[in-house]
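Bump. Still looking for Transcriptional regulator PpsR structure tokens.
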Amino acid sequence: MTSRGTKYWSSGAIPLIAPELLGDIIASAADISLVISQEGRVLSVLVNQAHRSFGKLDHWEGLDLRDFLTTDSQPKLEKMLEIFAGGGESDKAVELNHTDRENWDFPVRYSFHRIGPDESVLLMLGRDLRPIAEMQVQLIEAQMALERDYETQREYDTRYRVLLEAAREAFAFVSVNSGRVIDANSAAAALIGVAREDVIGTIFSQEFEGRRRGEFMQSLSAAAQAESVRPLELNLRRAEQRVLVTPTAFRAAGEQLLLCRIDTAEAAESVADELTSGLTALFREGVDAIVFADRDGIILTANDAFLGLADASDLSSVKGKSLADYLVRGSVDLRVLVENATRTGQMRMFATKLAGDYGAHVSVEISATYLGDNTPPVLAFVIRDASRMEVVRKPGVAVSDDAVRSVMELVGTASLKDIVAETTDVVEKMCIETAVELTRNNRVAAAEMLGLSRQSLYVKLRKYGLLSRDGADS
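Sorry for the wait, here they are.
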């Protein structure tokens, strides 16, 4: 820079700039620059190369700027043009929204400057407002999301309060780390013997006789993590009453909590006695056969309904035998029932036939439940006589309307023999897939279930492309 240029900068004047450089300087100083006449006609458009998102705006030149403004922005431009046409000045920035009426629109903040020998031309230096507008939209969306979350939280909190107070059982929420009561319902406070406000925040172990905080919280945590639900038998210090505390562990907002249900020992014993007596009566007098067996299928006990189905004289004649001895398909059916019940916890409505001591066969439906909490685990089988249903059921297999239409569509395109062969193959494949699935891909068991030889089953598996399944063959 020359000494003259330095003098101009220090005195506040602008140094002389070559005309070929002025356009680049203006384009770099603003995101978008417009040179317009005082009537609003676009004379030149300069776009900053760093803002290619504007696209090419050369087609604006020679046209009225109002044609590229939204309806609400046109009056703003008119006002600024009137000010400059009257000889006035304005250093106020104006926000204008550009649009092509169809595909795009973007907001720009412009400052207006007189240029030219007679200052009859206006230079508009614009700053792209889209980043700010996008940020404002994100802030609004975030605010709305927070408000929705707040309302949802209030709704859940109200539901929680109503449910907690409406529950007849006594519940208390206890922090594992501090051992203090976080919350409790009125039933729990009444059982402990204090007001609800007084029990919240207290150390839970102090409400019971002979309990220290560390040992007590370890006992509650161990009971909550045990596989079988076993309540702790405790004595309330204030009420001098024996209670049973059943803890349930969970985590909320990173904190470990225990939901402790508090029952009086008398009430728990009464409920247990009623449940035991009811289940005993159902086992003894129920119309469905009930059998309890170990994991090998050895019968531990059975009710009179099962003895009737099996034509057995008394319980001693079936106790100790395998349930497979009373199934027509023997160990195949028993293996399917035991494996599926043990794996998933239960198996429903398994259709088979029961064989009595004197050779009579009865169609039955068996449901199996695995009772893993027992020591040792046992299997409970509910066996329902289905022979009466076979009498009232119409012979044949029910066919859906879609299946009928699919078969009818083949008429005229194939011979009757081909149509029957095709539908037979579909049914045969479905039966084989079902048997393989029930036996967990045990090919030997599946063959016995279908009444096929092992070789015949392999032929059909190969025919229908089912040999790729993984599994044991024994």
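The domain at 401-463 is CATH 1.10.10 (Arc Repressor Mutant, subunit A).

Edit: fixed formatting.
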